[in-house]
Amino acid sequence: MAFKITEDCTSCGTCAGECPAEAISEGDDIYVIDQDACTECGTCVDVCPAEAIIEV
Q1: Which residue segment(s) compose the domain that 16 sits in?
Q2: Count of domains in the chain?
Q3: pLDDT digits (tens, 9 = 90+) for 19-28
């Protein structure tokens, strides 16, 4: 499953720092996941304090 960061993102950066594939970066308003780089490990989901990352 692919993951998506929703508008609930508070731009704290926790997910980007924990992503082993370095697939998460700061976007214009919220962080974004590069679907081509994402290995779908789910680490970002587990560490997001805002619960803003969902499976799509």
Answers
A1: 3-55
A2: 1
A3: 999 999 999 9
